[in-house]
Structures are given as C-alpha cells and as structure tokens.
Amino acid sequence: MMGQESRNKLTDYWKDHCIKEGKESAILTNIIHQEWSGVSVKDHKELKGLKAENLRDHMSEAELIFTALAELSTRRIAASTQATGMKENKIAGKEGGNIAKKARLELEHKTKKKVISADNYLKPLKKEIKNKSKG
Question: Considering Cα of 51, then 53, then 56, then 59, what sign does the dihedral take?
Fold first, then answer.
C-alpha cells in the first residue's frame, strides 16, 4: 500500500507541474525505473513473462520497495527544485532513480543476490480457488 501511495503522490505532483497523463507520465516512469533497476519497464515485464498485466502486481517485496524509494526520491527532488515540464522532471527522475539504484547495488553486494528477478509474485488465481475449496 505504501508504494501505491508514493506513486499517487508523484503522479499528483506531475499533474500540477505540466506533465500530461499517458505518454509523458509513462516516459518519466520508465526513466525512473530504468535508472534504479537497470532495465526498462518493458524489459522487466518481458523478464517476468507478462503481457498486458500490471508489473507492480508481479513484483517481489524488494522490487516494490526500490520502486517506491525511487518514486519518493524523485518527487522530493522535483518538489525541492520546483521541477516543471518534461525537461526538469526527467532530471529529477534520473536523480531519484539513482538514489534507489545506489541502495539496490549496496544490497546486492551485501547479499550476493540480485533484486531484479524473473520470479512472478502474484499468486495464480486457480491455486487460490483450489486451496479455498479444500479448507
């Protein structure tokens, strides 16, 4: 839930600072995601075997946390500089994403385990239905 709240606050900031919903918002989202994770949103979805599904619904706990950190950092940087329009918000997005990237790299170094994963963390619906009928 906290990750979605951070996302909503960022998109609200963008709406108030001349970023159009849709294409511009998607471009900025991809910049942030690429910066922190090292892969584009499209490539991350492909890694998880997703087509039209929402990537966030299939992320691990760590992936969600680093996404939220990148978005929170981006919003705070954008607000501190009063970033308006695409050019300024792209800069804030790269800087915010870079904060989460540094944290991700440090965690990966300490744990010897990659954060970005092909694992899909959304439980299959069929499995949930079978488990409910057994109980």
Answer: negative
Q: Please give the share of the chain, as a percent, with pLDDT higher than 70.
A: 89
Residue from 112, 113, 5 nearest 56 by CA: 5
Determine the residue type at 12.
D
Confirm if 99 and 69 have CB atoms less than 8 A apart.
yes
Residues 6+ apart with CB under 8 A from 21: 11, 15
Q: Are 78 and 63 in contact (CB under 8 A)?
A: no
Mean pLDDT calculated for residue range 74-95: 98
Structure tokens at 129: 């239905």
| Cβ atoms 45, 117 nearer than 8 A | no
How far apart CA 12 and CA 25 sit, in angstroms, is: 11
State the amino acid at position 58 in one-letter form.
H
Confidence of residue 124 (pLDDT cuts 50, 70, 90): low
User: Which tokens is 76 given?
Assistant: 């705070």
**Higher pLDDT among residues 35 and 129, named by residue:** 35
Amino acid at 65: I
